[in-house]
Amino acid sequence: MEVQSETRKIHRSETGLEAARQSVAARTELVRIAEDQVVAKTATESVLKDAQAELANSKAQLFDAEMQRVVAQAELVRTEGRQ
Fold first, then answer.
1. Is the CA virtual torsion 21, 22, 27, 30 positive or negative?
2. Sign of the CA dihedral 17, 18, 21, 22?
3. Residuewise pLDDT in 10s, the chain (83 residues)
4. Its pTM surpasses 0.85
5. What is the C-alpha end-to-end distance of the chain, expressed in Å?
């Protein structure tokens, strides 16, 4: 029963990881757009800085999601070793 629980944790962590990857991709595009807008003088530097901050936050969430997946995989291995 524990193996099933650990397997579900892995699946949840992989779902979170994919969402975090998509967030980083979207935020990267928003930074690119903000950079273009600053060059065209249709946005201020603060808009660009905000977009860069959001990208940094998304990257931190991606790191956390990757860590959660690794922990879930390790817990599964440990649980399988006990059975």
1. positive
2. negative
3. 788 999 999 999 999 999 999 999 999 999 999 999 999 999 999 999 999 999 999 999 999 999 999 999 999 999 988 76
4. yes
5. 10
